[in-house]
Amino acid sequence: MMLQPRITRPKGGLLTMPFIIANEGFEKVASYGLLQNMILYLMSDYGLGLVKGQNVLFMWVAATNFMPLVGAFLSDSYLGRFLTISIASLSSFLGMMVLWLTAMLPQVKPSPCVASTVTKCSSTEATSSQLALLYFAFALISIGSGGIRPCSLAFGADQLDNKENPKNERVLESFFGWYYASSSVAVLIAFTVIVYIQDHLGWRIGFGVPAILMLLASIVFVFASPLYVKRKATKSLFTGLAQVAFAAYVNRNLVLPVHNDSYGCYYHLNDSELKAPSDKLRFLNKACVIRNREEDIGADGLALNPWRLCTTDQVEELKALVKVIPVWSTGIMMSINVSQNSFQLLQANSMDRRLSDHSTFKIPPGSFGMFTIIALIAWVVLYDRAILPLASKIRGKPVRINVKIRMGLGLFISFLAMAVSATLEHYRRRTAISQGLANNANATVNISAMWLVPQYVLHGLAEALTGIGQTEFFYTEFPKSMSSVAAALFGLGMAVANILASVILNVVKNSSKKGGESWIEDNINKGHYDYYYWVLAILSFVNVIYYIVCSWSYGPTMDQLRNDKVNGVRGEEQEEAVKLN
């Protein structure tokens, strides 16, 4: 009797998707769920003032958004995506466990507040060791996010990317759609379920649930290890960009060829379409100038020292990155506005959060952020499924709003969001004082918190237009080899935004003191948050003007150039047809 050969199942495929998406989803539920109410935990249990607590959160979010750059570099250069995600998942779980311990063990934080309000807390100040443990938990969570977020999407694509499949592009497109949909659902769950648990069942359970979810995410991901396609680490694109900058500096005294058609002077790979670099940012061209072919290039045609001689493709990649930096910087102000969620949480906490006068259910103050996510998702669906098809039907040809117009519109809406926030806060504060609540920040002002919804919706629309628009802009403007950089730039903008938000907050706090009180006080009714919002609104308006200048100086996008080329070809064909007739 002959034994049948054992058929081994090919690795990867759709079977791996639930494990990868579940890992990313649980991480988002856990991390976003912790962030929403964290300012209340820092003020009530650690006795931190509003400004100091908000600065801590700004730095935490900045680190969380910066770490994906480090994670992407380590993944691409040394560890590979599977190992990076596995280590990061463990780091996130340990961080959440440490944070849960701060809620469970009384000795690791100051003695409880004896006052009944968050803003008037008589607890002793947290010691350096107590704060160090708290910051250690934040650091572990940031490290985890830095490994999971940049690698999960690419790792999932690795499982499905099959060049021999004729439907490969459609499969990847479907995966990206499900990936972002699951991410949005995860954030919604964090803003609702996790926040509700923290508000009604306390910090111990509220921090314990995210820790359990992160443990499940880690186990589920590692459990499916035998099923995954695991690509080996290769040289990182970040290394290549650094090599160009270094080589251009080392070769700064070289004289460039007079004409770029001197192909033999520049180093390029045999299969490269770029035989010579462009005339823009010519000082970087020195990185690919061949000084001595025998000393610079080996027998295999590769550079003997890639830190002194780079390819024309590498040079153009760095140029593309430098060129988009001004446009990228315009999105920072929008991210600063979005990061003001702690102040909006205090606003919601002081307002009537019932759905109606006869309702007993109150929306948790940390859950109002869900309106931003809902608005973002609603715009994406309407834009793709209703607005564009309707406009195309009316005009009789495909219609697409240029990405630069969408980004500019989003920045203007972000300005409107801050103007609306300032106007509403002025009315809320005036009403609180007229009701005799100036000294009681925890009392409920007789104003429905649903008035906060418009500003959240505007923030969602701004993110949908500018945030998604910037990501699309980077992907279309960069070479295919820079897709990882395109994905990381928006997160880097969020990191820079949170650092600048901390600077703006401290400047406003210190420069607005008058009679011992400033615009930013722990007691929201005594401060002038409306003035602070107007500062951000003015900066946002200036940023819109700055964007217009940057957009104009950038010139046409790759899509515009492609469309102009297509229209030019069609025009020539029509002229030829007229001549023949």
TrEMBL record:
<keyword id="KW-0812">Transmembrane</keyword>
<dbReference type="InterPro" id="IPR000109">
    <property type="entry name" value="POT_fam"/>
</dbReference>
<dbReference type="InterPro" id="IPR036259">
    <property type="entry name" value="MFS_trans_sf"/>
</dbReference>
<feature type="transmembrane region" description="Helical">
    <location>
        <begin position="82"/>
        <end position="102"/>
    </location>
</feature>
<feature type="transmembrane region" description="Helical">
    <location>
        <begin position="403"/>
        <end position="424"/>
    </location>
</feature>
<keyword id="KW-0472">Membrane</keyword>
<dbReference type="Pfam" id="PF00854">
    <property type="entry name" value="PTR2"/>
</dbReference>
<feature type="transmembrane region" description="Helical">
    <location>
        <begin position="531"/>
        <end position="555"/>
    </location>
</feature>
<comment type="similarity">
    <text>Belongs to the major facilitator superfamily. Proton-dependent oligopeptide transporter (POT/PTR) (TC 2.A.17) family.</text>
</comment>
<feature type="transmembrane region" description="Helical">
    <location>
        <begin position="203"/>
        <end position="229"/>
    </location>
</feature>
<feature type="transmembrane region" description="Helical">
    <location>
        <begin position="485"/>
        <end position="508"/>
    </location>
</feature>
<feature type="transmembrane region" description="Helical">
    <location>
        <begin position="55"/>
        <end position="75"/>
    </location>
</feature>
<feature type="transmembrane region" description="Helical">
    <location>
        <begin position="363"/>
        <end position="383"/>
    </location>
</feature>
<feature type="transmembrane region" description="Helical">
    <location>
        <begin position="132"/>
        <end position="155"/>
    </location>
</feature>
<keyword id="KW-1133">Transmembrane helix</keyword>
<feature type="transmembrane region" description="Helical">
    <location>
        <begin position="176"/>
        <end position="197"/>
    </location>
</feature>
<protein>
    <recommendedName>
        <fullName>Major facilitator superfamily (MFS) profile domain-containing protein</fullName>
    </recommendedName>
</protein>
